[in-house]
Design goal:
The structure holds 2 protein chains of 2 kinds. By secondary structure, chain A is mainly α. Chain A is built from 10 helices and no strands. Chain B is of the alpha/beta class. In chain B, 30% of the residues lie in helices and 26% in strands. The chains are: A mainly alpha, B alpha/beta. The interface between A and B is medium-sized, with 28 and 33 residues.
């Protein structure tokens, strides 16, 4: 039954406007970031040096900085997919065909997560091609990237990004479930991830390791300042479990009047 | 059983007991006991805000009853999954994904309900949408959207079809088409529960009626039974307008209630125990020639007002009761 909800969700997700805008948008954003990174790199310093870019992990150096952008996009799309069922009124149609609400929400979440993970993978492949081209244009050797060490770093970072994408997606869908408005869910989510957590962390630095956005970001970037990778993984996971349980509980118990 | 499904004492497609819904302090549906026979076309009528949609949402598992119980197609109201696979529904305005075509929208619902995708085109054809099935939903007219809603409701081959205000926003031709569709569902033996605030619609297509007002059940039973409880009224017009007042006085003296008709000197006469012949005889014996004498069964609308003890002008704003129903 969850497979039925999953395939039904994909019927909606694969519509050309959403599919192309998400896949191409993420790929364009990632590519732009790569181009900027290589164009700003210098022999002596700056954001990153050309020497650093030629190392085995050179390909993934900039990923940590782009993780927040990818997270915000995943969060927004996920929140909109759930909240729009309320604003369009389509939820009542769905619930007549699948009255088991936990099954419906689980299938929907799985559909949205796979959609965003695939979009991320597509963006990564495009960014990799752009990175190779950018490296050649700046005279950066890419031979170290495709060694065992380099590819290991690449796939480890991709794995972390996939985990972070799942995290941002679940948080987005949970918020969409509570707010029931795509616009408000995206505004609240963006404000929290981009502004509120930063403000809290600046005022009370010790709080950073307990914030959901910072925890997921730490996973995406393989550990960051103030939040270790392991801590981010455990705390982020706990936040996700709590978010899923809360969203399921609210969804199962609430009246659908939209 | 006739086409409208009137089957006293037969099995019930929908039965509820003490069905109640409160939102905070406000009771929207109050102790409603439905008994809708299988195979019937049942009209669910009441003014706007009477609780029709909330009742329907409870039947569909979208809204949790505050109290009460029920059985739908043999499944418990408390477990919608036990019966919803046999139910099709159009709830208020049709709601679909604007970016998807009509066919893709139905495919999404078919996949969700584990209905074979081969069922999609036949329901599109039946609802007259096959030619436009590939177009995006957002390009559809209101009538087409409504028809797609009907197609979605038919997708799972339902035994019970619940249609909430299916003629809302349709032009006269669309209303006639919708009426035909509903009758064809009845011909297929599907139980149809159709809500409307337009009682004239209900009168034309339904053999069974449930009346609700302010959340409470006012009446339920066959339309024929309800009509039988209503006395007939007569429209009488004398040949000469000069005789109108005298005829009215004579009728009142004979115990009739007389009111003025709309136009043309017509008197509307409520004549308990009298027939058309009695009225004609009374007029003739007093030298008045009658040019029009017609017997009318009271409409369901008037029956509704009689049952609730209200007049149309008593209905609060927003509870359009000239449009009961």
């Amino acid at each position: 039954m969850m497979w039925a909800a999953f395939t039904s969700e994909w019927t909606k997700l694969r519509r050309p406007t959403l599919l192309f805008s998400t896949f191409l948008g993420l790929a364009a954003a990632a590519s732009l970031f790569v181009v900027l990174l290589f164009s700003q790199a210098s022999a002596n310093g700056g954001i990153v040096t050309l020497h650093q870019l030629a190392e085995p992990n050179g390909l993934v150096i900039g990923v940590a900085r782009a993780a927040m952008l990818l997270g915000v996009v995943a969060f927004g799309i996920a929140a909109a997919q759930v909240a729009s069922e309320y604003s369009l009124g389509t939820l009542r149609q769905l619930l007549v065909r699948q009255p088991r609400r936990t099954v419906l929400l689980a299938g929907k979440m799985l559909g949205v997560i796979t959609f965003l993970v695939l979009a991320l993978c597509f963006a990564a492949v495009v960014a990799l091609i752009v990175a190779v081209a950018a490296a050649h244009s700046r005279g950066v050797s890419t031979s170290a990237w495709f060694t065992g060490t380099g590819l290991g770093d690449l796939f480890r970072e991709l794995g972390d990004l996939v985990l972070a994408t799942i995290g941002y997606s679940v948080l987005g869908m949970s918020l969409g479930q509570f707010v029931r408005s795509a616009v408000f869910a995206v505004i609240i989510g963006f404000a929290w991830l981009i502004a509120v957590e930063n403000i809290i962390a600046r005022i009370v630095p010790a709080s950073q390791q307990w914030l959901p956005g910072a925890s997921i970001l730490a996973v995406a970037s393989g550990g960051g300042e103030g939040v270790s990778y392991g801590h981010g993984l455990i705390l982020g996971g706990a936040y996700l479990v709590a978010a899923i349980c809360a969203a399921m509980t609210v969804f199962v118990r609430s009246d659908v009047t939209a | 059983m006739d086409r409208t499904g009137e089957r006293p004492g037969g099995p019930l497609a929908v039965s509820t007991a003490g069905l109640t819904k409160r939102f905070g302090e406000r009771t929207v549906v109050d102790d409603v006991a439905l008994a809708i026979p299988s195979g019937s076309v049942c009209g669910f009528v009441g003014p706007n805000g009477a609780g029709k949609t909330t009742t329907i949402r409870m039947l569909l598992g979208l809204v949790r009853p505050t109290s009460g119980s029920g059985t739908i197609l043999g499944g418990s109201l408390a477990e919608p999954a036990t019966y919803l696979h046999k139910v099709g529904a159009l709830i208020e305005a049709p709601a679909f994904y604007p970016q998807l075509s009509g066919r893709e929208n139905l495919k999404a619902l078919a996949r969700l309900g584990q209905v074979p995708l081969t069922a999609v085109d036949p329901v599109l054809e039946r609802s007259g949408l096959l030619a436009r099935a590939g177009d995006r939903y957002r390009t559809y007219s209101l009538g087409m959207k409504q028809r797609l809603g009907i197609a979605a409701a038919m997708l799972a081959g339902p035994e019970l079809l619940i249609l909430d205000e299916p003629t809302n926003g349709l032009d006269p031709a669309g209303i006639v088409e919708m009426r035909g569709l509903i009758k064809s569902f009845a011909d297929d033996g599907i139980t149809v529960l159709v809500s409307s605030h337009l009682i004239s619609e209900i009168e034309q297509i339904c053999g069974y009626v449930v009346m609700i007002r302010a959340g409470r059940l006012v009446h339920q039973g066959s339309v024929a039974e309800l009509r039988a409880t209503q006395r007939a009224e007569f429209q009488v017009a004398p040949e000469h307008d000069a005789d109108r007042d005298r005829l009215a006085r004579l009728l009142r003296q004979a115990g009739c209630t007389v009111t003025s008709g709309d136009a043309g000197g017509v008197l509307v006469v409520d004549a308990p125990g009298a027939g058309a012949a009695d009225l004609n005889r009374l007029a003739a014996q007093n030298g008045i020639t009658v040019r029009q004498l017609a017997e009318h069964t009271r409409s369901l609308e008037r029956a509704f007002f009689a049952l609730t003890g209200t007049k149309s002008e008593d209905v609060p704003d927003g509870q359009e009761m000239g449009a009961i129903g």
